[in-house]
Amino acid sequence: MSRTIKNKRPYLLLGLGLLVALLLVHHFVLNLNLFPEAWDVRLREPLDAFKQWSIRNQTTHPIFLYFFEPISDGIDFALRRAEAFLLWLPWPVLVTAVFLTAQKAGNLRLALLTSFCLLFMGLVGLWPESMQTVALMTVSVLITLLIGIPLGIWAGRNARVERGLRPFLDAMQTMPAFVYLLPLVLFFSYGRVPSAIATIIYALPPAIRLTTLGIREVDKETVEAARSFGATPRQILFKVQLPLALPSIMAGVNQTIMMALGIVVIAAIIGAAGLGGIVLDGLRSLRVGLALEAGLAIVFLAVLLDRLSEAIAVRNRTGVVVANGRLFPKSWQTNRLIIRLEASLEWLYQSGGKLLARLAGLSHSDFVTRHAYLFASLLLLGALIWLGRALEWTTFPETWQLSLQDPVDTAVLWVRDNWFEFEWGPFLLGTRPFSNFVILNLLDPIDAFFQEFLSWPALIVGVALLGYWAAGWRLALGGAAVLFGLGLLGMWELALVTLSQVIVAVFFSLIIALPLGVWAAKSDRVTAVLRPILDFLQTIPAFVYLVPVVMLFNVGRVPGIMASVLYALPPAIRLTNLGIRQASPEAVEAALAFGSTSRQLLFKVQLPLALPSIMTGINQTVMMVLAMVVVAGMVGGAGLGLEAVNGLFRNQLGQGIEAGLAIVILAVVIDRLLLASAARTSVGR
Amino acid sequence: MTKPQFTISCRKVWKIFGPNPGAVRPLLDQGLSRAEILAQTGHVIAVRDVSFDVRAGEIFVVMGLSGSGKSTLIRCLSRLIEPTEGEIVVNGQNVVDFDAAQLRELRRHKMSMVFQRFGLFPHRTILDNVAYGLEIQGLKKEQRHAQARQVLEMVGLKSWENYYPHELSGGMQQRVGLARALAVDPEILLCDEPFSALDPLIRREMQDELLRLQKTLNKTIVFITHDFLEALKLGHHIAIMKDGEIVQLGRPEEIVAHPVNDYVREFTRDVPRIKIITAKTIMTVAATDAGGNHVTVHADTTLEKLIGLTAVSPDALAVLDDTGCVIGMVDRTAVLQALSEGN
Hints:
The structure holds 2 protein chains of 2 kinds.
Chain A: H1 2-29, H2 44-57, H3 62-88, H4 91-105, H5 108-123, H6 127-157, H7 159-174, H8 178-188, H9 192-217, H10 220-228, H11 233-266, H12 275-284, H13 288-318, H14 336-361, H15 366-370, H16 372-391, H17 405-418, E1 422-424, E2 427-429, H18 431-454, H19 456-470, H20 473-488, H21 492-522, H22 524-539, H23 546-553, H24 557-581, H25 585-593, H26 598-627, H27 629-633, H28 640-649, H29 653-681
Antiparallel strand pairs in A: 1-2
Helix pairs in contact in A: 1-19, 2-29, 3-6, 3-9, 4-5, 4-16, 5-13, 6-7, 6-9, 6-11, 7-9, 8-9, 8-29, 9-11, 10-11, 11-13, 12-13, 13-17, 13-23, 18-21, 19-20, 19-29, 20-29, 21-22, 21-24, 21-26, 22-24, 23-24, 24-26, 25-26, 26-29, 28-29
Chain B: E1 6-17, H1 24-29, H2 34-41, E2 44-55, E3 59-64, H3 70-77, E4 85-90, E5 93-94, H4 100-110, E6 111-114, H5 126-130, H6 132-137, H7 141-154, H8 170-183, E7 188-192, H9 200-217, E8 220-225, H10 228-234, E9 237-242, E10 245-250, H11 252-257, H12 262-268, H13 273-276, H14 279-282, E11 284-285, E12 296-298, H15 303-312, E13 317-320, E14 326-330, H16 332-341
Parallel strand pairs in B: 3-8, 3-9, 6-7, 7-8, 12-13
Antiparallel strand pairs in B: 1-2, 1-4, 4-5, 9-10, 11-14, 13-14
Helix pairs in contact in B: 7-8, 15-16
């Protein structure tokens, strides 16, 4: 290793010299602040021209007639059907169906939780919008799985296919979700169809990856055993590989659903109606109460989908479900009253099951008896549909609805009056002074450092140097070239504004996440308290974070940063915790045997051993903050995000796509640099 | 003398792993070693010019340390790994020439395999594991379950059929592996270190079980092991492999008595020679009627017994074959020499 460092040293020194020279030129000879405007390739013009062309030719050109149109029509048809069906169903049918499924897959607690989640959407008067979102979800997820699972199986069985797919999957996962939306508008215009397609593209990687992983991880000897008995490839797939890969595939389905939900609500900005649209409207017209209602509905939808699909996946994995009658957490089982209650619930459940089995036995059909629960549920739902149609239960009863809007709007006003700014002794506190502080002391100086002190050529050389040090020529040249592209796009200044926000957001995330992660690793209790909170935070689509942030911080750059911090916290905390906990127990034991204090243990053994995991956490934090750039743009986070959002709202698509590309460039450069530096520093481990 | 019936005959079998196995042979002819070829070309010579015959109804043991190519060799027999070169004749047919359908037929009906880490299907019950081979042959559920139950009873796992593999101990899991292989009633059983993952006591129990089953079912068994004592206990013939080649092939007592080189001698060091070596291996061949008043012993008498007999007999012992004919003589010198060679 030391040899390569020596080999690299002259080049590194040369680069450093160039950097200093550039800085001297910049400060004393020629101001290199701004990327020369003449070099702007003005990509937005052909893009906008193409948009115009596509609008004019939508009904005549063969590529639209025979390619985009059929896709668009097919998806639109499915969406319409799904939506119409969901709205046709009397609402109690859906709630009951969710209850019964959750009861079977999990327990009574899950059933009550999930059916409440669904009920909530009706209670706040958002039933039709929720059904629109659910329809968009259902269709997108089904298409995703129909493409993803077979592709995943293929890649799992054929290494060449996997190698071919991998770069695409990597690229798809590095790109912030939002970036898909803009180009799709070029071909599919605004509305639900491009939203569905964006969702499919975004949610495809986990479906493929986890299927492939599942197939790959089937024990080699097990497959060999099947082969040794003369099984055909098809028999191996269906009798061995698929059943054993099922848990992983189901985990993929769960992830696909959650990722799809994340983008389905963001897709509101290209005109997908539904809950996301309401949140967006609420935020843009600063009717926070409305946005909060829809935001909560999204959260509940997320919780419902996540817990239900996870329960089904777990049930598939173990094949056994115990205690369907369980209502309370296990830790409550010490209370006698609760034990008795649980016992009677379990008894009810058991005897219900017995009764069901006896009734099903009357049919004298083995199939019916085995699936008694399913048949009974179907009968019940059928009866509910009939009853509901007869009594016209299609819309959620208005008298049940309770609006949160007025109290929330009042609360927001109160917060604005009391928390935005208040004096406490000699200090001016509140969120506005905080925002100002962050802007004046962090954002602006960082921006000025890049823009004015470094100048653009020096920044590019700096990145190349870092890339060369961390990996080699390829990363150095690639990074510099791609960064130069930012300037060619005319996005240099905006990109640096965004970069300063990203740096500040990452900084805040890490100073919260790292100590919390360490603390959680040291204390089981902290971990136990944090787990449900982190689970919850990770379930919520990023978009929803905007609502509370706007309540507290109004709009601007700092609220955008705060939303990103909220979004990026969980993985950083988790990975720090995990890294420390997984530090080799023998090493820890040895350190203790030498009489280390717990502080010495942490700094001399656990943290160094956890470094790779922590570096992964930092990288993930950065990538998540970058993914939030556009979302932050919606609440006035200046820079590329705002530019992309404006591109859409003001119908300047070309400009929006340029901004989107610039975000991708930032993401790719930062991702590669961080990964390479992490690998470089962890050499010898 | 009639020609012995060979169930499996391997002729000059090679397996070379790597992108271009054909390029390796010239290098070998130039006298490059296995390690040099790996370093230069990235090719691994796993099996090198191996030939042997397995007689019908015998246990043929291939013994070698890890990396000696024995696991590759056994997989070549049913072409789970494609041999690079050579002939593998099973019941008169060259398996190497089989097409996919013939190969499946061979695997479904003629040969089944027992794996080192059992290779059980974790998502299937014990019964369905054992019935797997019958299932893919297309047997109806009742029929295959009935057959599987019989075999389970034979290996003593009758009451476990509804359990899952992870609920059983290692020894029991390998009984299931054995039962699964026997369920299709194959002519040949391929065992790839089946007992290596088991505790010593369980291992001995399983070895006895295999010998018992072999006696009643009379299968032809190819058995892989890295344990020399296991090879001695089970094998009618033993092939010792090193670096992909067979270094010695013979009956157990032949190998113990006359190891061909230091490598083999090293294995025989811990062997209780007095229990393995027989009169036949240490006798000096003598004329048939040299007898008279000599004490006679059977050719299979172990060294352990010969010590006592030569101690009390002033003259050499006459060694008799199955028909009662004298085939050789053993004296004190021969016995003492046989004893000292072990040390």
